[in-house]
Amino acid sequence: MAATTQAPNASEYIVHHLKHLSNKSQASIIDLSVVNFDTLFWSVLMGVLGCFFMWRAAQSVTTGVPGRFQALVEMLVEFVHDQAKGIVNSAESRKFVAPLAMTVFIWVALMNSLDFLPVDLPAKLLALTGLDHAIHYHRIVPTADLNGTIGMSLGVLVLMFYYSVKIKHLGGFVHELFCAPFGAHPLLWPFNLLLNLIEFAAKSVSLGMRLFGNMYAGELIFMLIALLGATATWWGFGMHVIAGTAWAIFHILIVLLQAFIFMMLTMVYIGQAHEGH
User: Fold this and answer.
1) Where exactly are the structural domains of the chain?
2) φ, ψ for residue 21 (rounded to 5)?
């Protein structure tokens, strides 16, 4: 976000804000050598912050009347546990899946909440620290990066494979891949395998794409609203304040809803790994 001598137009402004701090200035859609450092930084930071919140909640537990923070955490823990109990039929698996689901919800909610920060805040902070000449691009919402959301969905995919093998054993899992849902006849094996592989891929891709699509759209709308405030007119500034406030209030629902959906689908997909066709 380097300083420029001429103010960018609307198109240049949006394109600039949609570029990542990356190890490559140009990259294809599928390029495993690309690392988006801003996505990594904010993802890890929000993960650490989420762990700190949960640690603070565990440290503040009392046997008496709980405070607001403890009551909120207890309600969340009980809610997630009840959802996990109804989705994952293995009590042993729920010891890991329920805490995982709560961690996913808090982590995704925190990453999504970064969208409430002003669009130009990173540029202002970089200018104050003198790093704007070295860091030209920076995006602050990790879940608006497809690499980040697909990475999380691949983690869920690994857990799906893990529990499929753990519950059904390797032989049972392989048998299911080749013999379900059409039947065990050898001529049907290729079709069964293809359908099951497509199902696994579709679950993983849709899980990451859903979160990315919603947060990317929300981030883009905030950029468009920010452009209203740059018109240097009372009408533009007024619409900037009104539209920004309205969208921020509505975006609270999107931030929490997308975190909830990602958490629930994580449990549903792991729960399905415990079941046979």
Assistant:
1) 10-26+34-273
2) -80, 100
Q: Residue 154 half-sphere exposure, CB side, CA atoms within 13 Å? A: 6
Rounded CA-CA distance 134/118 in Å is: 21
Tokens 């109804």, located at residue:
86
Q: Is 122 exposed, middle or buried (0-12, 13-18, 19+ CB in 10 A)?
A: buried
Q: How far apart are CA 85 and CA 206, in angstroms?
A: 24
pTM of the complete model beyond 0.90: no
Give the separation between CA 9 and CA 6, rounded to whole angstroms: 9
Q: What one-character DSSP code corresponds to residue 72?
A: H
Which residues belong to the active site?
A: 206, 210, 214
Closest CA to 1 of 23, 11, 13: 13
Backbone angles phi, psi at 25, to 5 degrees: -75, -30
Residue 83, both tokens: 């959802």
List, for residues 127-141, the tens digit of each pLDDT value: 787 776 667 788 899
Distances (CA, A) of 106 to 54, 73, 80, 138: 9, 11, 11, 23
Residue 238 has pLDDT above 80, yes or no: no
φ, ψ of residue 120 to 5 degrees: the values are -95, 5
Q: What is the distance, to the nearest Å, from the Cα of residue 233 to the centroid of all Cα atoms in its chain?
A: 37
